[in-house]
Each structure stands twice: as structure tokens, then as C-alpha cells.
Design brief:
Length: about 220
């Protein structure tokens, strides 16, 4: 069950010229070099965003948040964010990854969400993530109802059965723009804006409110 209004997000990065986290957890995002496992600092750039400024990924830096979002404590959770890809972008890069259930990936123009060891929820087709346009993406993992639901702009949401028991424990970090601390599938030619993580499985109406820009969905 979700309340009439969502609690404050655990993590909220608006990327308005900094990596400040206004979420309730307060964990600080760090820009690090891909493949360094978080040990080599790097610089993230900023560009025009969906709201104010956005984090601009050029392949030289990814973002690490030192927080373990394990599947037991965070089995009911929601990620929302905006993504923008350059005109010639045609690669693979995760928006988020924690080595376990919290994984949303952009593959070419498809959007994929993990729901089990061999299970994905996806929106496919060239129009899924059109170039040079801001696209809203949200994922809801709900272990209470065993569902994983992927939202993409105003399309009909897609769901699949969620099986977190088949997945490993989460890593000690949450990553943005890369699958984990490796140098595989690094975001390049992409911008992220208004990243939010909630420790609730938000409803469709709450997701729509966030997309509409409401601060208290």
C-alpha cells in the first residue's frame, strides 16, 4: 500500500550545478573514473537540463553513492529520473545499478528493468528513447505484490513478475551511468536530471505527479 502522499525521497539529486543530495538519507554522490571502483576522483560536467541543469556524462566519469540498497530492506522501492541522449547515441549504459535488483538500462533506444536473474521488463523500439529529447523513466519494485513495473513518459506501464530471490545481494554502492564500479557500459553522450529514489512502491498517480513536476506527489 502507498500513502496518499509519498514520503520524502531517500535520495534526490537535482544536478543543478552540483551533486548535492537533498534526500532524507543525505549520502553524498561522488564523481569517479570508470573502472576505478570509486577510488579515483573525476569531474562530472553540467549542461542544460529538464529543470535547470543536468549531469552530463562524457564517458570520463560516473557517479557513485556509498549506500547499500539491499533487496530485503528496499524490496519496495521506486526510482524516477529524466534522460537525454545525443543525436548519434547508440550504445548501452545503465541509468542505475546496485549489483542486484535495482537496475535500469538503456540499450540502444530500448529501456530495460531487471525483475529477476533472467527476467526483464522493457519498452522497445526506436521511439522509446528518441534522441535530443528529455524522456521520463521510472521503475517500481514491489516485493509485497511480486511485481516490477517500468514507466516511460506517458506510455502504458509495463510489468512483470518480480523474483529478487534469484538475484545476488546488493553491492555496497549505488551507481549512476555504469553497471557497477567497472569500466563496462559507461554512459557517454547522455544527460541525467532530477534523480529520485524512494523506499516505497509508488502508485501510478504518484509517478505521474512526479513527471508533472510536483514536489509532494
Amino acid at each position: 500500500m502507498t500513502s496518499a502522499h509519498a514520503a520524502d525521497p531517500v535520495i534526490h539529486l537535482d544536478f543543478d550545478g552540483s551533486l548535492a543530495n537533498s534526500g532524507s538519507n543525505g549520502v553524498q554522490a561522488e564523481a569517479v573514473a570508470p573502472g576505478s571502483r570509486g577510488e579515483t576522483p573525476a569531474d562530472i560536467g553540467y549542461a542544460e537540463g529538464r529543470f535547470g541543469q543536468a549531469a552530463a556524462f562524457d564517458g570520463e566519469a560516473v557517479l557513485r553513492l556509498p549506500i547499500q540498497l539491499d533487496k530485503e530492506k528496499y524490496g519496495q522501492s521506486t526510482f524516477t529520473g529524466w534522460i537525454y541522449t545525443d543525436e548519434d547515441w547508440d550504445a548501452e549504459a545503465p541509468m542505475i545499478g546496485n549489483g542486484s535488483h535495482l537496475w535500469i538500462n538503456i540499450w540502444g533506444r530500448d529501456v530495460q528493468m531487471r525483475c529477476g536473474k533472467h527476467c526483464l521488463v522493457r519498452h522497445s523500439g526506436l521511439a522509446s528513447v528518441p534522441p535530443e529529447r528529455w524522456v521520463f523513466i521510472a521503475g517500481v519494485w514491489n516485493t509485497a505484490e511480486n511485481t516490477a513495473t517500468l514507466y516511460l513518459d506517458q506510455r502504458v506501464a509495463r510489468s512483470n513478475e518480480l523474483d529478487v530471490t534469484s538475484l545476488p545481494q546488493a553491492s555496497e554502492d549505488l551507481w549512476l551511468g555504469v553497471r557497477d564500479g567497472s569500466n563496462m557500459s559507461v554512459a557517454k553522450g547522455m544527460r541525467f536530471d532530477d534523480f529520485r529514489f524512494y523506499d516505497q512502491a509508488l502508485s501510478a498517480s504518484q509517478i505521474a505527479a512526479i513527471r508533472a513536476g510536483e514536489t509532494n506527489p
